[in-house]
Amino acid sequence: xxxxxxxxxxxxxxxxxxxxxxxxxxxxxxxxxxxxxxxxxxxxxxxxxxxxxxxxxxxxxxxxxxxxxxxxxxxxxxxxxxxxxxxxxxxxxxxxxxxxxxxxxxxxxxxxxxxxxxxxxxxxxxxxxxxxxxxxxxxxxxxxxxxxxxxxxxxxxxxxxxxxxxxxxxxxxxxxxxxxxxxxxxxxxxxxxxxxxxxxxxxxxxxxxxxxxxxxxxxxxxxxxxxxxxxxxxxxxxxxxxxxxxxxxxxxxxxxxxxxxxxxxxxxxxxxxxxxxxxxxxxxxxxxxxxxxxxxxxxxxxxxxxxxxxxxxx
Length: 314
Prior knowledge:
single chain, seven-stranded mixed beta sheet, two-stranded antiparallel sheet, 9 helices, 13 strands, globular
């Protein structure tokens, strides 16, 4: 299975276990499984589903990439959960990151060439909403944050950088800690709620900016999935701060869908990825409405706020 690379033992170029890593970690090769493609028949089930082919294995985020029909270089998906996990298809090229991202295998269909991806992980997004709910008791249900954030027109000039356990991509700063900056007596719960949602969008832009710099590909839209995509205020601000459309599919369970797609290809239910692309349908779209001047002013403020998180933990 090509998703075993999460153990950092697989060579991305050969798609086989790396002898140097195995030697360094003193891991015998014969104790490791054979690496197989993402879409292949691995065997047949037993019991009440006896004889049914077992086919299609993808890692969580790779499956979401596949389920979002991101089959061309430059296509990007972002999964909004406790954290955010963003992958960009880079085609058949292994693109080493110079901007704080991870290079990974996206998927490999049978005997076809492997498709690679750049991945950016954001630690705290939906978890920030949970923190406001559980630690500060600002609302009873996470869904209420959108209503609370809509009680104000903007954040009142504050930024909330949720570096609770440091910053992940593209910074990788373990010394960073969370901050709320720009506070005045004018600020109320609505401003804090709105700043928390906007923090997710700002962090997403930073990762996508890094992806564009690494890949030299200008992305056209962002496909989104995960629990937070039901929040229209967040999705609209995400489109505004990225200056590209944000698109939510009709089927939001893209991880399960992606692994099912891979299995379907393996057993011949689907002819090819073009058939899968045709089966993907747009559910809702948010288009940018913010001026370029406002966009850059807000993002520059975010970058300034992020700099205040550095060098806090010894």
